[in-house]
């Protein structure tokens, strides 16, 4: 049976949860999916780097939290030597889950590039490389005969990108609108319930929804990246970050939320893209007070939803978790399942 060796770049909420899944469910994965997974390298800013081609003891790695020392105490290094680990380790697949940088995607763009250049496949939940360098990295993967998968970059583990690419064949997509950030949606809901903004953000952080800098969620940068990804991947828009207008929810005060509630409206952070008559695409993200009977008004908590406008079916809506450690770790697993299916011709249901 095939075993894929994987390297975890960034060992925070998402990649730790992937390691937990591998440790707890390795046998089930093997029997149900037809392949095994073995973690052979981990790097993290707080822990340093560890490379063990025979497989890392995941119990040991999961017990380390940065306060309890670094990988130097386990035969590794206290330094985060990403380039050397990514290029030289024996992994077949690099799982990139470091911080998303909404400006230029670095250093994650480099992490992905180093992996693809050294003929390793990549799965990532990091929106930066996909949004800002997606076309270039996809083409590099193709040139090198490896895979670049990023289902978790939009709506965490909820299948959207692969689903739309495969299941909407024969349909023309004219645009989409959706709730694409779990944190801001969670915060708006908690504020409607009477919580203050800071307390609501703190809850979203504890639940593993928020970015390392939650301003990325609140000020719309995260949705800007996701709109860019969906527009380029699904509408073939050929647009850049500067083409996606951005406004976050920091202007949506508790007073505005209560007033909207009295008027039968609910504030939501809506990301959208629409194809114009001349073929160009207009895209943006902004807070909107939606009537309660609008399809997106009832989407609550960290749930996300995106409604695609198609020529033959009209609106087709996909809804599911948009954030969360387990949900996003599953996205990485679904990427690996898709790679395995592409390699072996096995049916992939994800
Ligand atoms: N948590 C979620 O619900 C979702 C997260 N994502 C994305 O997945 C990625 C990971 O998310 P989380 O695990 O929740 O974040 P996190 O903040 O819990 O973990 C990120 C980890 O990466 C490490 N790191 C940062 N820069 C690094 C570098 N240059 N080299 C090595 N390690 C580095 C940090 O020390 C940290 O442990 C982020 O890009 C995030 O935007 C995407 C979808 C959902
Ligand atoms: N911080 C993001 C995580 C997923 O991309 C969110 O809240 O949606």
Automatic annotation (TrEMBL):
| Gene Ontology terms, MF aspect | homoserine dehydrogenase activity
Q: Name a biological process GO annotation.
A: methionine biosynthetic process
Q: Extract the Gene3D superfamilies matched here.
A: Dihydrodipicolinate Reductase, domain 2, NAD(P)-binding Rossmann-like Domain
Pathway entry: Amino-acid biosynthesis; L-threonine biosynthesis; L-threonine from L-aspartate: step 3/5; Amino-acid biosynthesis; L-methionine biosynthesis via de novo pathway; L-homoserine from L-aspartate: step 3/3
**Domain annotation Homoserine dehydrogenase catalytic: ranges:** 159-337
Under Pfam families, the record lists: Homoserine_dh (PF00742)
> What EC number(s) is this enzyme filed under?
1.1.1.3
State whether keyword Lipid metabolism applies.
no
Q: Which residues bind L-homoserine?
A: 211
The family assignment reads:
Belongs to the homoserine dehydrogenase family.
Task: Please explain the role this protein plays, according to its UniProt record.
Answer: Catalyzes the conversion of L-aspartate-beta-semialdehyde (L-Asa) to L-homoserine (L-Hse), the third step in the biosynthesis of threonine and methionine from aspartate.
The cross-references to NCBIfam families, in alphabetical order and at most eight, read:
PRK06270.1, PRK06349.1
Q: What is the recorded name of this protein?
A: Homoserine dehydrogenase
Q: Which organism is it from?
A: Pseudarthrobacter psychrotolerans
Taxonomic path: Bacteria, Bacillati, Actinomycetota, Actinomycetes, Micrococcales
């Amino acid at each position: 049976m095939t075993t894929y060796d994987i390297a975890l770049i960034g060992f925070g909420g998402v990649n730790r949860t992937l390691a937990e899944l591998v440790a707890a469910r390795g046998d089930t994965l093997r029997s149900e999916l037809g392949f095994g997974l073995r973690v052979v390298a981990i790097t993290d800013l707080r822990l340093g780097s560890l490379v063990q081609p025979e497989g890392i003891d995941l119990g040991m790695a999961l017990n380390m939290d940065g306060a309890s020392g670094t990988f130097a105490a386990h035969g590794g290094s206290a330094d985060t030597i990403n380039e050397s680990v990514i290029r030289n380790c024996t992994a077949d697949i690099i799982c990139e889950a470091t911080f998303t940088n909404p400006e230029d995607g670095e250093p994650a763009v480099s992490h992905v590039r180093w992996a693809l250049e050294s003929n390793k496949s990549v799965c990532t939940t990091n929106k930066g490389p996909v949004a800002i360098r997606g076309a270039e990295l996809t083409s590099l993967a193709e040139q090198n005969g490896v895979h670049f998968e990023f289902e978790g970059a939009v709506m965490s583990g909820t299948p959207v990108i692969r689903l739309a690419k495969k299941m909407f064949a024969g349909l023309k997509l004219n645009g989409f609108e959706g709730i694409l950030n779990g944190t801001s949606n969670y915060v708006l809901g908690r504020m409607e319930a009477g919580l203050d903004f800071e307390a609501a953000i703190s809850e979203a952080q504890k639940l593993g929804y928020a970015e390392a800098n939650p301003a990325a969620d609140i000020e719309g940068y995260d949705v800007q990246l996701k709109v860019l990804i969906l527009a380029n991947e699904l509408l073939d828009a050929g647009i850049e970050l500067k083409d996606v207008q951005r406004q976050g929810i920091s202007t949506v005060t508790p007073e505005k939320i209560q007033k909207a509630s009295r008027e039968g409206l609910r504030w939501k952070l809506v990301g959208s893209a629409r194809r114009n008559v001349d073929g160009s695409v207009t895209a943006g993200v902004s807070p909107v007070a939606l009537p309660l009977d609008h399809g997106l008004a009832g989407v609550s908590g960290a749930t996300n939803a995106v409604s695609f406008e198609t020529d033959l079916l009209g609106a087709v809506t996909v809804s599911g978790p948009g954030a969360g450690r387990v949900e996003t770790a599953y996205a990485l697993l679904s990427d690996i399942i898709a790679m395995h299916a592409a390699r072996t011709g096995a049916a992939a249901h994800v």
